[in-house]
Amino acid sequence: MARRETFLENKKMSISINESRGGFRMYYTEFETTLCPLILVGDESGLKRIHMETGEGKREMDIDPSWVYNEEIFFEAKDQLTQYFEGRRTTFNLKLNPEGGTVYQKKVWQSLMDIPYGELRSYKDVAIAIGNEKASRAIGSANGKNPLPIVVPCHRVIGSNGKLTGFAFGTGIKEKKC
After folding, report:
1. Residue 121, strand partner residues
2. Measured distance CA(25)–CA(18) in Å, rounded
């Protein structure tokens, strides 16, 4: 299959939509943050996944034996995430290529990156922002499949009643600094 990339515009970064993996070797690293341990997964095309080791929630991750441990390839991502958790950064400037996701889900994830630091939006607000006011449940579903939490700020989306409604890594972590 031919490789095709589409970049959705964003002030700070964009999500690449790739139809093929391109045969890149996958890398990973693990590191501690002030919030929780993180596992980063990616390749030369960008950061593909962030896994938060919170001890709760419904997401688990196994490290594929074919992946290569490499701290260097994730230096910038680790540095920016550390700065974010320490309160020294409010936006990210990283090369992203999220693992999985439909074109629609990636459109939702791109929209999430427009939510400013320190602000919240409801699922309905996000649905309106992408042009489909009645898509709140679809927004919730796409939010739950976001492979790049924190960088793609799905944690800034709440129920229309103003309450936390869910987070793939558990609402306890969502209540913290995210």
Report:
1. 157
2. 15
Q: What is the pLDDT of residue 11?
A: 36
The tokens of 130 are what? 């992408």
Residues belonging to the active site: 154
Q: Give the tens place of pLDDT for each residue, 45-81.
A: 999 999 987 566 556 778 899 999 999 999 999 999 9
CB distance 92 to 83 below 8 Å: no
**CA 49 – CA 26 distance, rounded (Å):** 11
> Which class for 10: exposed (0-12), middle (13-18), buried (19 or more C-beta within 10 A)?
middle
The three-state secondary structure class of 79 is helix
Reported as a single tens digit per residue, the pLDDT across 88-106 is 999 999 999 998 899 999 9
Which of 5, 6, 75, 67 is CA-nearest to residue 41?
67
For residue range 110-141, list pLDDT tens digits in order.
999 999 999 999 999 999 999 999 988 899 88
Domains of the chain: 5-85 (3.30.160), 103-174 (1.10.10.10)
